[in-house]
Amino acid sequence: MKLLIYCSLWCGVKYDMILSMIYFIIICLGIVLAIILLQAAVLYILGKLFKIQNISFLRCLLIISTLLILGGILSVIFRMFLPILLAEIIVIFSSYFIFSYFIKKSDILVSVGKKISLFIFFLILGTIASFAFAIIIRLNVAEPFLVAGDAMAPTYIDKDYLVLSKMNDSYQRGDVVVFKFNGKFLIKRIIGLPGETVEIKNDIITICKPDCQTDMNKLILNEPYIIKMSPGLSQRPDSIAKVKQEEYYLLGDNRPVSSDSRIYGPIRAVDIVGAIKFKVFNIGQ
């Protein structure tokens, strides 16, 4: 019986890991595809400006895809045997010859000087466009987050690599969020929402609105995800906190060691960066 339980738990963990990896791969492929389309658009516009004959967006897609695949393969091969700087220089020259071949296919009369100028302009503008796209994604859509410490154990442990979504600022109770506090980025779980009162007695959390004296529909949280205080450790004192509008009350799942709203109070909504969507893997493992 124990063996069956352990096997089912192991399969459940593996399933979650595989599902997270699939989500992560889909997101990465989407980003790569967006960058390819963006760079193809840059190359197409430059091709028109440089008056390259028979240049088309599909041909630009073919050029970018080929450069990405062959450039990546050559980069890996050369880095195995050469210093990084020398390897990258060789990759750039190799990329130029691939680029030149495809441009020659579009316009057989194009001069060498025009091809070199087009390649240089594409490198500069393509890099700028890709960098700007990455910044926009990181600031407004999603970014990676690396957990430091075990304040959110067992849900998330030290060196867990997570994906943080910034697309939704309407948070719910139970969401795990990243926020900025005293210049550091911390990860905690939302317990109290704006306008509520959070009362903690003997590690039991009661949610009231607006306060626990007048509220007849108090909510006692069921928290199967937390690590409770061991009998041998000193208990944290009972507390009660009023959560203002545009604030959230945040606690770590590892209650014995977590520094959270029990110490520094509710967190302003503007200080919350985003919500954790899924775990990719653990770097330490």
Question: If you had to describe this structure to a student in words, what would you say it looks like?
Answer:
The chain has helices at residues 2-49, 57-81, 84-106, 112-140, 261-264; strands spanning 142-146, 160-165, 176-181, 184-192, 197-201, 204-208, 219-220, 239-242, 247-251, 267-268, 272-282. The chain is built from five helices and eleven strands; from the N terminus they run ααααβββββββββαββ. The protein folds into two domains: 2-140, no CATH class; 142-282, Umud Fragment, subunit A (Ribbon), CATH 2.10.109.10. It is elongated, with a radius of gyration of 27 Å. Helices cover 45% and strands 21% of the residues. It is an alpha+beta fold and 285 residues long. Residues 1-13 have low confidence and may be disordered.
Summed up:
This protein has helices at residues 2-49, 57-81, 84-106, 112-140, 261-264, and strands spanning 142-146, 160-165, 176-181, 184-192, 197-201, 204-208, 219-220, 239-242, 247-251, 267-268, 272-282. With 285 residues, it is α+β, with helices and mostly antiparallel strands.
